[in-house]
Amino acid sequence: MCYRNSFLGLLLFNLLFINPSSAADNDPVGHYSKRATALLRDAISRETVRGAGNVPAYAATLQDTFLAAGFPSDALTLVPYNDTASLIVRYAGDGSSGRKPILFSAHMDVVPADPNDWLRHPFELQEDDTFFYGRGVLDNKFDVSILTTLFVWLKESGFVPNRDLVIAFTGDEESLQETVQQLTRDYRDLIDAEYALVVDGGGGVLNDAGEAIQFRVGFAEKTYATFAMTAKNAGGHSSRPRADNAIYDLARAIQRLEAHQFPIETNEITLTYFARTAPLLDGEVGEAMARLVSDPSDERAIATLRAEPEYVGTLGTTCIPTMLSGGHAENALPRAVTATVNCRIFPGHTPNEILRELQLVADNSNLQWDVVGVPVSSPASAFNNELLAAVAVALEPIHPGLPIVPQMGSGTTDGAYFRAAGIPSYSLSGIFINPKDSFAHGLNERVPRAAVSESLRFWRGVINELAGDTSITGS
Ligand SMILES: [Zn+2]
Q1: What's the gap in Å between 383 CA and the centre of ligand 1?
Q2: CA of 143 to the centre of ligand 1 (A)
Q3: Is the same domain home to 65 and 184?
Q4: 200 alpha carbon to ligand 1 midpoint, in Å?
Q5: Best exposed site among 170, 202, 206, 472 by fewest CB in 10 Å?
Q6: What percent of the chain has a predicted confidence (pLDDT) above 90?
Q7: Residues whose CB falls within 8 Å of the CB of residue 468, separated by 6 or more in sequence, listed in order
Q8: pLDDT given for residue 411 in this prediction
Q9: What distance in angstroms lies between residue 429's CA and the mean position of ligand 1's atoms?
Q10: Nearest CA to 43 among 151, 134, 150?
Q11: Residue 208 C-alpha to ligand 1 middle, in angstroms?
Q12: pLDDT on residue 412
């Protein structure tokens, strides 16, 4: 299918690219911030939710944007997948570093939003003095627009990286996550890289006073796995009760799960996370983190941190019942009762290992266990000092001396599939936001307007460090 000649695409790049070059020379960050905002405005107007079929046209418009900036057509690959698509962009380097490419990834789809629930229309970019609003304005069309504009800026300024830089924009991260699997399976030669930077999540944290307090880089994700635990019984009439009962059996198993704690686990990522977060927190929690770092078996520190929902997941595997179903009539003994148990598995363990542990804990060989869906095991990515050093250099002119904190996410993003395919993957973004203002997936999603220019400066700095000609300062 030829997406390149779409009318909307032509219209958009006529609007975007008829610019006197002097503006780009005098104030490149201001100039490219305007272009990134125009791309974001177009992106938000497209309702790229699952099943709407709007991702391919969005991808085609982005493709046109790269073409207009001088990328050759053979550097661009639009990959259709059912009613969605991915876009791969290769920025050819001169190969002088002798290193494999760096992959940059973000996703073009969004989760649904009902205009009746929102204060502003979710599929129109709206703004006030501080924020842009719209579905996807944070997750993840902001970063799609930034990465696109960044590549355009680099290309138009004549930058030649010392290794290839590759973009992969995927098309269903928020639902099936099949486009990333198509890329790692069928397009490996086009997206293969020394490592991937998933530009979705991570990034700068602002406190309530609007000051930057830390910058997070995701090094690992826990494996998401769900199990259905079912107690079965011959059933019967409720007027003739017996001692054996599926509800009692399941209730006993659930109580055993409640009493069970998976072992405390740490790795280089979580210990560094605690070490660098401890000084930023006052009181008991900060102290507990510091004690855990010096002695990972400190019982009191473990108890304090386990009591905090924000940190319990960083200490090991967790499994928790989330749904119950069962029985078929109020006057019948139940024949089947099921509890759904959702687990977030610490890197280094397979879902099967955790299932066996749950079976031992439940201690009833008559229970039936089923795996719900297909869990993806994602190993932690190796510590990447080169990346952390580049982030530190890029942040210095924006937020000098900011602590950089490695993080382990508890969900599954496209990065898990890159890791599973053997491409180490790190998540970070140039956005600085107060976690209280982050409404990704929720109502009235927003991003600080200041994030546009900050992100462009940040990424320009990172690329200069990782792939660059350090004579170009970028701002
Ligand atoms: Zn996302």
Answers
A1: 23
A2: 10
A3: yes
A4: 5
A5: 472
A6: 81
A7: 159, 161, 162
A8: 73
A9: 11
A10: 134
A11: 24
A12: 78
Q: Which domain holds residue 98?
A: 7-221+378-467
Q: What separation in Å is there between the alpha carbon of 407 and the centre of ligand 1?
A: 16
In this structure, what CATH number is given to the domain that contains residue 207? 3.40.630.10
Check: CB of residue 453 under 8 Å from CB of residue 147. Answer: no
Beta strand spans in 359-398 (E): 368-372
> Where does a domain end: 343, 372, 401?
372
Domain boundary residue, one of 372, 397, 415: 372
Structure tokens, 133? 């609003």
Residue 413 alpha carbon to ligand 1 centre in Å = 7
Specify if 249 maps to a domain. yes
Domain identity same for 202 and 106: yes
The two structure tokens encoding residue 351: 């879902």
Number of folded domains that form the chain: 2
| Residue 472 in domain | no
The Cβ-side half-sphere exposure at 464, using a 13 Å CA radius, reads: 19
Q: What is the pLDDT of residue 208?
A: 86
Same-domain check for residues 201 and 64 = yes
Cα distance between residue 416 and residue 412, in whole Å: 6
Low-confidence ranges of the chain (pLDDT < 70): 1-22, 440, 469-475
Domain identity same for 154 and 292: no
CA of 278 to the centre of ligand 1 (A): 27
Residue 2 inside a domain? The answer is no
Tokens of 104: 């940059």
**Does residue 475 fall inside a structural domain?**
no
